[in-house]
Amino acid sequence: MNKPIRIVIADNNTDFLQRINDFLDTQEDLKVVSVVRDGLGAVDASKETLPDVVLIDLHLPVLDSIKTIQAIVAQNEHMRVLGFSSVPDDRYAIEAIKAGARGYVKKNGNGALNYEEILSAIRQVANDEVVLDPALAFHILQEFS
């Protein structure tokens, strides 16, 4: 049996944290090693637990998410960061990719979670793939034209 994908989840929404943690705990190939509510906590948890993937909301308090991503990537280039947000067309998504995130998915803002999309993105990022929402990919292409 392969080792499970180790995950740190960072979000200041406690309801989301509980729901996504409960859902990910049902997956045999995943192991949530830490759940934190701010950017500084994400940096510290990543340093202590050495996760494979850090699932990070793009609007964290204490240490902003872009600086958090930069710090996580700087401390261990093998960690993969997956950003997410419930804000449509989040302007921080492109900055997160520039900072070193390997992907971005939308977190539904209406209370319903897109579990399967998040799950698929975690697995893809853990396998060293890049995951981008189609709208974000379009905006990134516009940056280069």
Structure overview:
The protein is globular and about 40 Å long. It has a five-stranded parallel sheet, sandwiched between helices. With 145 residues, it is an alpha/beta fold. The chain is 44% helix and 19% strand. Helix 2 runs parallel beside helix 3. It is built from six helices and five strands; from the N terminus they run βαβαβαβαβαα. The model has no long low-confidence stretch (mean pLDDT 88).
Layout of helices and strands, plus pairs?
Blueprint lengths: L4 E6 L3 H12 L4 E7 L2 H11 L3 E5 L7 H11 L4 E6 L6 H8 L3 E4 L8 H12 L7 H10 L2
Parallel strand pairs: 1-2, 1-3, 3-4, 4-5
Helix pairs in contact: 2-3, 3-4
Features:
5 strands; 145 residues; 6 helices; alpha/beta
Give a quick precis of the structure.
By secondary structure, this protein is α/β, with parallel strands linked by helices.
**Helix content, binned percent:** 40-55%
Distance between the termini: 46 Å
SSE series: EHEHEHEHEHH
Mean pLDDT: 88
Which blocks of ≥5 consecutive residues have pLDDT under 50? none
Number of strands: 5
> Helix tally?
6
**Rg, Cα atoms, Å:** 14 Å
